[in-house]
Amino acid sequence: MKFQLNGSFSLLIEEGEIPDFEQFFYSFSPNDYPNNALIASTWQDMVGCFSNDIPSLPGAIPDETVKTCTGNETLSDADLSVYGNHNYRITYRVYTAVYALAHALHNLYSAQPPANHWDKLESLKRNVKPWQINRFVRNVTFATFPNVTHSFNKYGDPPAQFDIINWLFIPGHEIVTTTVGDFNASDHKILFYIKSISDLWGSQFNMALRLKSRYNPIKFTLSQNMLHDPAEDKIQSPLSLCNEPCALGHRKSKKEGVPSCCYDCVPCVDGEMSNTTDAPSCFKCPGYEMSNKNRTGCVPKMINYLSYEDTLGASLASTALMLFITTSAVQGIFVKYWDTPIVKANNQSLSCLLLISLMLCFLCTLLFIGRPTPICCLLRQVTFGIVFTISVSSVLAKTLTVIIAFNATKPGSKLKKYVGYKVAFVLVTICSLGSSGICFVWMTFDPPFLEASMFSQRDIIILMCNEGSVTFFFCIIGYIGTLALLSFIAAFLAKDFPDRFNEAKNITFSMLVFCSVWVTFVPAYLSSKGSRMVAVEIFAILSSSAGLLGCIFAPKCYIIFLRPELNTRVAVV
């Protein structure tokens, strides 16, 4: 580890000079304090010996490998570097602290009212509390040898003064430290001072670089900005790094086999960001946000749903309204020509019910467009299921009406009592109750709910209705499909009945279109996501409903307006 730090810099508290202290220190002996066990024990630890003649702390047991004190040891023989006090940095701090307190007490006892509320004689007799002397300590200014001024700021802190130390670890030699400069916050002209750039590293370190060893010293670069060089009288700045700090949007990545201050800068991945230089890691954006292009911050994701403002949403909504208006017009035509043979031929009441249900089918698609809400999520599939069931069951009832009416004309047939609209409406009611029951169970046990899909796409939040139970959703589709298949089979069997206004052929084609649309819907729906999934269902509803409207009612409107001669009792007979 120390070889990796070879040539590195550090800051140490400022070294100061205490007059005659070094001579006093090295001449110190525990014999001068014969009854002080703490001094004796500390002395023995420092010089590395033990003696029974010197008092020690209770319980102190000498190591068998420790030599016996001779009494002639001095601190000059001790390695004081392990205590960090070989240059008296901490000692000098204690020295100046004592002087600061002494000057504060002197100022306190020398002060006149109102700074001191007592006279001088009374001050000397009083016990001064720490809080009373605090402001005097803050305001002292004094000098120590050799003419070094000391003071405190308004917060009671001395100005920051540090020595800049260069560390040198030479294999097989002692640790060498060199003071290469200093930092002095009290000097407003030169805060950061380097003695000499040319000798910044020293010849010994340059020699160490040439030594053949297994370590690689850290390389340093100097930038010419904020470092004061006395020789050239200009400002420069040392940069003690292997590489530039990582920029915003990047993180540090450790390199194997190199010092910890050497690292790679790796860009933050998508969905993460860092807004500080030299970030140790990137922060993940919340689910509703994504990282910006430079990975320096998080921005809200776009919210996606089938909106009326989108081209697709507006087109589908316009188509639904046009088909609704068209169906309403057909309904008006049937009401106007209510008593004509072509309207009366195939149960005009069922035709009106079918037209009304088709209008509701077109309108229910509007529940699928726009920003989803919990109420819309509950209503749209229920409305679609029940209304579509009424439409398909009406077609089935019309087909069965044709079959019953044809067979009732045979001699001795018992089907005559089933001819009429009552049986048809009972059939529609029963079929509708079936789909209503499925919807009720669905809404009770696993209803649809509003969901925000945050992670299906990188930069988009998909706001959608989760159908809750997919099983119930496809049960509704399957139920409607079963009714459509029965209608197709019944219409196919009745397509050759001899009747000018027989709707069986038209119903056959309408059910063929209907079944084709919904068979195609299933794979398309399962392979889509987000607003496209909603658009697929809307398209299926509109196209299948339009198929019913066109195949069943377009031929009737053609006869009413373009072939009115066929819409007479004489033509029917």
Give a description of the structure:
The protein is an alpha+beta fold and 573 residues long. Helix content is 44%, strand content 16%. It has 15 helices and 19 strands. It has helices spanning 21-26, 37-47, 89-110, 120-125, 130-138, 202-210, 311-336, 341-344, 348-364, 374-408, 421-445, 470-494, 504-526, 531-562, 569-572, and strands at 9-13, 49-50, 67-68, 141-144, 148-151, 161-169, 175-184, 192-194, 221-229, 234-239, 250-254, 263-267, 272-273, 283-284, 289-291, 298-300, 302-304, 449-457, 460-466. Strand 15 (289-291) and strand 16 form a beta hairpin. The longest helix is centred in the last third of the chain and has 35 residues, at 374-408. It starts with 8 loop residues before the first strand and ends with a helix. The model is unreliable at 57-61 and 202-232 (pLDDT under 50). Residues 25-167 form the Receptor ligand binding region domain. It is found in: Cell membrane. One of its GO terms (molecular function) is G protein-coupled receptor activity. It is a multi-pass membrane protein.
Summarize the structure.
The protein is of the alpha+beta class. It is built from 15 helices and 19 strands.
Query: Helical stretch count?
Result: 15
Question: Can you give the helix content as a percent range?
Answer: 40-55%
Text of the CATH class of the domain at 311-572:
Mainly Alpha
Q: Kindly report the average pLDDT value.
A: 79
Based on the structure given, which CATH architecture of the domain at 311-572 is correct? Up-down Bundle
Q: Can you summarize the main beta sheet?
A: 4 strands, antiparallel
Strand order of the largest sheet: 1-6-7-8
- Contiguous low-pLDDT stretches (5 residues minimum) are 57-61, 202-232
Structural class: alpha+beta
* CATH fold field value of the domain at 311-572: Rhopdopsin 7-helix transmembrane proteins
What Rg, in angstroms, do the CA atoms define?
A: 49 Å
Number of strands: 19
What form results from the Cα inertia axes?
Answer: rod-shaped
Q: Note the gap between the termini.
A: 113 Å
What proportion strand?
15-25%
Pfam family, one: NCD3G
Main location: membrane
Domain GPCR family 3 nine cysteines: 238-290
Domain Receptor ligand binding region: 25-167
